[in-house]
């Protein structure tokens, strides 16, 4: 996967004190009849922070965002912004910018008309509206297209108009609801950086909803992983990846090997194999190891670093240019390892006897119901 | 966009279908230029005398003007009722909204003759028979379902996210409706208005029940004319009506695009 440069670690490391965030969700709940879409979510976001809500579809991330925007009423709990309870405040008084997956531009207005709308609602003088609209359009690099209608723009351009429209009102919080999902891969990456750059420059607090772990990891100061309406883990991208709080988080954020075994003291026994765990305990567990932390060396070659070792045979090698994935048949278990490629001839052929090894610290152990 | 080629057989079939639909209308055109005193096809002589005769028929001219005014009034009231009603049914979606929509559009399914008979009985009792308000209400009853249907459809196909976006930008509900919802519904409004106007203008059955010796719409007047005389005057009027209707449709098409307006 990727190694994140430790950006904005100061706010990211801890996050605000519980209940003290610039945006504070307190036991926020949304029920639909018997179904609990969002289940007592607590979250505090600092001013200027970029926080992603990450999870599979139906996990409650969009409902949470819509409650923050006031588009869905909360069944229970509170939403507090800058110390003010806004739970019952109607959407149009909340002063939040929302960027939709579908762009949701006004089709009958020009680009400039779209961007000016929020300022007109605030009753600003015409001259000020004109300057701020021009600034916002320049910020998303759409100068010269002010008089186009949304229908005459590409998807990426439309999403940039939506971004300008949401930011021009200088919202207290910028809400982004899967804004990149309708764009193609290349444009998505470009927009990612653009959104992040603009957000940092303006110091806007942003909540970003996505089901794409790459997006969440690369863009966010902190990521909130949600599942079945509740929060699985809140942490920096590094936290989530290196210290996932649950097997769900480990599996959702990045790929992982999963082995079931029984732990006794510091040793986990997985179908006859002994694996050393970083923390001693006892009971049935599952052991997770990231494929790229598993080092592979031909049997007999100097043993690779790391104290957990499994001998096996390469059953399949999948070459993907920058990395190669090995499927290692170790008798009772199968492991996937991922290695960076290094020039021609570096691949280990299928059928080779190998030793797979990884560090004890890279062994993630979770208790499981027996 | 590339379209798949249409086979000659299908083209032929389409031509026959069009001919079948349009033949009666097309026959009216030569009939209207007849120089004869009686309607017959083909005419024995040609002239424009029956067009001139229209101008000399104050009853017809008066009926035409009344029909236009009636249709226009009905259309305005229709829109005034249907826009808020659709908004309530589609956007606020109260319990039983679907049942209500079915109820409101029921007059479309009822035989007009049954409706006419029922109205005749009720209106006779309350003294609305052969009055302008009576005719107005009758037309409203048969046109409102069309208008409601078209506007509800137009409203329900609008992406709600656009209205939500307006709300997040600080627009109160009434402002969202005025600045965003209504302009986006415009093609639907124009279509519904045109439909309401044309259905009212063309309405015969109810108008026959509701009209009286001194209150008559153009279709009723034409019907009475055909009953008592057999001259080609009505053919000439018919041609003008076709032109009039086409003009409305063309104006709608030019301003909004026919496909966008009628095909949703």
UniProtKB/TrEMBL annotation, chain B:
Single GO biological process annotation from the record: transmembrane transport
CDD domains: TM_PBP2
Alphabetized UniProt keyword annotations: Cell inner membrane, Cell membrane, Membrane, Transmembrane, Transmembrane helix, Transport
InterPro entries membership: MetI-like, MetI-like_sf
Lineage: superkingdom: Bacteria
Pfam families for the chain: BPD_transp_1 (PF00528)
Localization in the cell: Cell inner membrane; Cell membrane
Primary residence: membrane
Transmembrane segments: 12-33, 70-90, 102-122, 128-148, 188-212, 232-252
ABC transmembrane type-1 domain residues: 64-252
Membrane topology summary: Multi-pass membrane protein
SUPFAM superfamilies in UniProt: MetI-like (SSF161098)
One GO cellular component, as annotated: plasma membrane
Family indicated by similarity: Belongs to the binding-protein-dependent transport system permease family.
UniProt protein name: Polyamine ABC transporter permease
Native organism: Prosthecodimorpha hirschii
């Amino acid at each position: 996967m990727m190694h994140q440069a430790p950006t904005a670690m100061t706010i990211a490391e801890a996050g605000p004190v519980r209940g003290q965030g610039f945006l504070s969700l307190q036991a926020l709940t949304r029920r639909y009849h018997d179904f609990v879409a969002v289940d007592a979510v607590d979250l505090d976001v600092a001013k200027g922070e970029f926080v992603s809500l990450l999870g599979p579809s139906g996990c409650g991330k969009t409902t949470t965002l819509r409650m923050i925007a006031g588009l869905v009423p909360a069944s229970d709990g509170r939403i507090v912004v800058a110390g003010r309870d806004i739970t019952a405040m109607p959407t149009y008084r909340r002063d939040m910018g929302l960027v939709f997956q579908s762009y949701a531009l006004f089709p009958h207005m020009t680009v400039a008309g779209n961007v000016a709308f929020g300022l007109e609602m605030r009753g600003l003088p015409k001259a000020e509206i004109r300057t701020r609209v021009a600034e916002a359009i320049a910020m998303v690099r759409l100068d010269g297209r002010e008089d186009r209608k949304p229908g005459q723009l590409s998807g990426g351009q439309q999403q940039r108009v939506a971004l300008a429209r949401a930011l021009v009102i200088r919202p207290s919080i910028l809400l982004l609801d899967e804004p990149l999902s309708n764009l193609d891969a290349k444009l998505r990456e470009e927009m990612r950086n653009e959104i992040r750059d603009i957000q940092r420059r303006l110091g806007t607090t942003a909540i970003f909803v996505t089901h794409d772990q790459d997006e969440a990891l690369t863009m966010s100061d902190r990521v909130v992983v949600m599942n079945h309406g509740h929060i699985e883990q809140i942490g920096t991208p590094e936290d989530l990846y290196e210290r996932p709080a649950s097997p769900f988080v480990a599996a959702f954020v990045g790929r992982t090997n999963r082995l079931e075994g029984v732990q006794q003291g510091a040793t986990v026994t997985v179908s006859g194999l002994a694996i050393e765990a970083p923390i001693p305990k006892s009971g049935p567990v599952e052991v997770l190891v990231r494929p790229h932390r598993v080092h592979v060396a031909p049997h007999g070659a100097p043993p690779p670093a790391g104290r957990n070792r499994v001998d096996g045979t390469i059953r399949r090698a999948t070459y993907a240019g920058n990395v190669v994935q090995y499927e290692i048949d170790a008798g009772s278990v199968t492991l996937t390892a991922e290695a960076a490629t290094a020039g021609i001839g570096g691949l280990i052929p299928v059928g080779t006897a190998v030793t797979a090894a990884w560090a004890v610290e890279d062994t993630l152990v979770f208790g499981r119901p027996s | 966009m590339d379209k798949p080629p249409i086979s000659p057989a299908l083209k032929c079939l389409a031509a026959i279908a069009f001919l079948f639909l349009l033949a009666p209308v097309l026959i009216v055109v030569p009939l209207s230029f007849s120089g004869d005193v009686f309607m017959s096809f083909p005419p024995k002589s040609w002239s424009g005398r029956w067009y001139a005769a229209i101008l000399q028929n104050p009853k017809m001219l008066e009926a035409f003007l009344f029909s236009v005014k009636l249709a226009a009034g009905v259309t305005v009231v229709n829109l005034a009722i249907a826009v808020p009603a659709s908004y309530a049914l589609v956007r606020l979606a109260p319990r039983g909204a679907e049942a209500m929509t079915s109820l409101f559009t029921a007059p479309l399914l009822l035989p007009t003759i049954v409706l006419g008979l029922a109205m005749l009985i009720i209106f006779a009792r309350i003294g609305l028979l052969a009055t302008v308000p009576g005719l107005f209400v009758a037309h409203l009853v048969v046109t409102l379902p069309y208008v409601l249907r078209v506007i509800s459809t137009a409203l329900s196909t609008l992406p709600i996210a656009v209205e939500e976006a307006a709300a997040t930008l600080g627009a109160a509900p009434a402002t969202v409706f005025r600045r965003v919802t209504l302009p986006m519904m415009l093609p639907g409004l124009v279509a519904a208005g045109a439909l309401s106007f044309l259905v009212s203008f063309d309405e015969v059955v109810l108008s026959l029940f509701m009209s009286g010796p001194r209150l008559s719409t153009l279709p009723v007047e034409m019907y009475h004319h055909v009953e008592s005389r057999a001259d080609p005057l009505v053919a000439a009027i018919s041609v003008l009506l076709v032109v009039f209707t086409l003009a409305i449709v063309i104006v709608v098409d030019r301003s909004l695009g026919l496909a966008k307006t009628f095909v949703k």
